[in-house]
Write a structure and sequence with these properties.
This protein is α+β, with helices and mostly antiparallel strands. The chain contains five helices and three strands. A three-stranded mixed beta sheet has the order 1-2-3.
Length: 133
């Protein structure tokens, strides 16, 4: 067993540091996995679509680990919730809109960063996203 461990280049300390830096994203993926474990009463297509959306959001370094972003897919509709600045808001909406399997996006993201009351936001700006269809 110990001979096998010397071939693994990642130490426990490095894995712990990586997990701590990505704790928000890991927590979201764990919550998603918990919902995906049977018995699941929803549509499996929605689970696959939500996994694609979460992967697309995690893939972009600008949206990875956003502290207030909540994502859910039901009946082909992506539900986005949270609070963030307008450029990130547009980027998350663009990623959700361009993800395969999503027919509509219902955005409940409030603008305003972390201070002040949330403001309504109209999605008029298309932000380039790195999403594979």
């Amino acid at each position: 067993m110990w001979k096998l461990l010397r071939f693994i280049p990642v130490t426990r300390a490095a894995a712990a540091v990586w997990a701590w830096r990505n704790r928000r994203e890991l927590g979201r993926w764990m919550g998603f996995a918990w919902r995906a474990i049977p018995p699941f009463t929803g549509d499996r297509d929605d689970l696959v679509t939500e996994a694609k959306l979460r992967a697309a959001i995690s893939r972009d370094e600008r949206t990875r680990g956003l502290p207030t972003l909540a994502v859910r897919v039901a009946d082909g509709t992506a539900f986005l919730d949270g609070r963030m600045v307008a450029p990130l808001h547009d980027l998350v909406y663009t990623i959700a809109d361009s993800t395969a399997g999503i027919g509509a996006v219902e955005c409940r993201i409030g603008d305003g960063g972390f201070r002040g009351p949330p403001r309504a936001h109209v999605h008029t700006t298309h932000v380039p996203a790195r999403v594979d269809r």
